[in-house]
User: What shape does this take?
Amino acid sequence: MTKIFAINGSARMDKGYTHIVLSAFLEGMEEANATVETVFAKRLKIRPCLGDFQCWFEKVGECIQKDDMESLFPKLREADILVLGIPIYFPLPGEMQNLLNRLMPLVEPILEFHDGRTRTKFHDDVKISKIVLVSTGGWWEKENMTLVVQFVEHMANDVNVEFSGAVLRPHAFLMDEYKEKGEEVLSAVRRAGAQLVREGRISPETLDTISQPLIAEEELRARYNEVYRKAKEYSS
Ligand SMILES: Cc1cc2nc3c(=O)[nH]c(=O)nc-3n(C[C@H](O)[C@H](O)[C@H](O)COP(=O)(O)O)c2cc1C
Assistant: This one.
């Protein structure tokens, strides 16, 4: 049975759109018989990485900081697929960045050169073979989300693990208003989760359905600008 470990990095946790999209993705994975566990990065007490490489060159594979990362390490080692739920925060929420920095003890300190760059790999006791991104943004274009996609892709490549793609939902908040399309999107998100577990990949058509525009580009910008105009009017 495929084991999934998911981290939701949204500051709004279970009130956010990342939760809605990530939950649908994980439901799809469960439908395909995977076991799923999710944590909210913000709910955990995770201090920033000390940056002193003790986990690489002194106590290899161990972090000397005693906080909630301790309970995450065994779960991360056992997972087959790591799912990162990240809202776009220009580029990503701090709690998530903190947590990802603290993954260093899982990485073997052997530097290798392949695909034109210096890279590492996970220790042999880490089962993760795929990393997938589930992301929501507020602006219109999914291209606005590229930095986080590249970040997660680089991270996967750097530890020699497959990057299984990015489930991207731009202007996610409009799924509430455009209910019919919103449902279509969420059912495609569920399908994406099931596809990844059953077929090992998410089809490009499914990803396109998930990221489909819900409104015209200019209209979205006009709506944001109108909210700001009213807020300014009210506060002056
Ligand atoms: C600090 C900050 C920066 C943001 N920057 C962007 C951005 O560059 N592009 C974008 O599409 N959305 C941006 N957003 C909007 C969020 O990505 C969007 O509202 C997302 O759905 C929030 O996830 P949540 O509902 O789980 O909190 C930003 C939000 C915040 C709070």
Q: What stands out?
A: The mean pLDDT is 97.
